[in-house]
Amino acid sequence: MSPVVVLFFLFPTLLVLAVAALSLRNNENGKKRGLNIPPGSMGWPLLGETIAFRRLHPCTCLGEYMEERMQKYGKIYKSNLFGAPTIVSADAELNRFVLMNDGRLFEPSWPKSVSEILGKTSMLVLTGEMHRYMKSLSVNFMGIARLRAHFLGDSELYITQNLRTWRENTPFPAKEEACKVTFNLMVKNILSMRPGEPETEQLRKLYMSFMKGVVAFPLNLPGTAYRKATQARATILKTIEKLMDERIQKKKEGTDEIGENDLLGFILEQSNLDAEQFGDLLLGLLFGGHETSSTAITLAIYFLQDSPRAVEQLREEHIQIVNAKKRRGEPPALTWEDYKQMEFSQCVVSETLRLGNIIKFVHRKANTDVQFKGYDIPSGWSIIPVFAAAHLDPSVYENPQKFDPWRWQTISTSSARIDNYMPFGQGLRNCAGLELAKMEIAVFLHHLVLNFDWELAEPDQPLAYAFPEFQKGLPIKVRRISLIE
Ligand code: HEM
User: SUPFAM superfamilies of this UniProt entry (predicted)?
Assistant: First the structure.
């Protein structure tokens, strides 16, 4: 046998042994240094416990892997996940500690495959000054003034346009409809692209390819979802470069009428990001803002079809808003003041996000040795704060598996629950689009409950993939109703 062939067969074994030795060394190093690393198991060489950690389960529970480990080791345990020695935290206090010390004791540590595809200037992976800068651009872009002036009207427009296409008694996947609305809203506000136009459709297809790759197994071979996503990313970046050039040209010619109203105009005016940086920002906002919000809307449709009392109370709230507008002689379009009246709707939003666990956990890495509750987290180890653990903790939320929006009516009296509630993260890296997301869902609920009764056309449930996913896209059947004279 030639040495090359021998090496070919030996290589995987050597790799496994090397990684096993590395994991062992990390552990041994910890022990030698007298560190009190939390209990747990490092699992298989190379793979660790990644497969068990990623095993599918309904997103309204923690899944067998977490439940077993928590029973055996407690809320803080060690493991080997995504190729790194890792502390998994189901402890709300440690989760908050990690997020509040972002940039000091901890930094983001997404698996290399995710950070490569999102881009090196994606906000999810950036740290320090550049992160602060990109965050401030995004937060300004989605500040209350813009929500009032642009996003509210646009949300209502795209939602009503979409709901008009719903056909009675013809089942359709609710997730797909929610995706259309949130995608259209984002591309209109980021690039002034209109729904249905060929360029928008082209971008949507590329983005879908990109999105599949972000959550796919990171195998960069011809034909894999990951490879297709890297290609889609390159094409999207080229498209953006072209749009930037066109916009700059139009500005020079004085023919740019709408530029200032979208993110591209805002970036060209207020910053000096290049096309790749803008591309990473755009992909981050599309990724952060499109998949999450459409999943939240779909989850609300799912939870509400099983809670007629909540639908009834929503209807009362929204009929009152419409009637009050009529009495005041106002046009029917929702205003910011109307949105602020949607108090019970906000309880439905909060409960949907708690029970739906859209972002179940995030990835961080310790910059230095950190001590917490008597345990040591060694420098360089990953830490995975699992937000869902606190959201589903029976000592915090009574009957946590129950969809109970009314529990949020008394939340101000119980700050413990607020501290345990992190659907949008916390601290330096908290969600830049949280106000936009809450508004989009509430406006969607307004038009949904006033115009439709709905039921599941087939059984389906949300499973915890990278995001909660309905295997059939949540097929629903609707009936039009008319509650407003
Ligand atoms: C229900 C919908 C949403 C949920 C549950 C959600 C959740 C989150 C969470 C948990 C984080 C923190 C990630 C971390 O700590 O590593 C985050 C960050 C972020 N989100 Fe959202 N998000 C939602 C909607 C949106 C929307 C609509 C946008 C914008 C259009 C957006 C943009 C972002 C951005 C840019 C970041 C990164 C912030 C940073 O790194 O400082 N999100 N989101």
Answer: Cytochrome P450
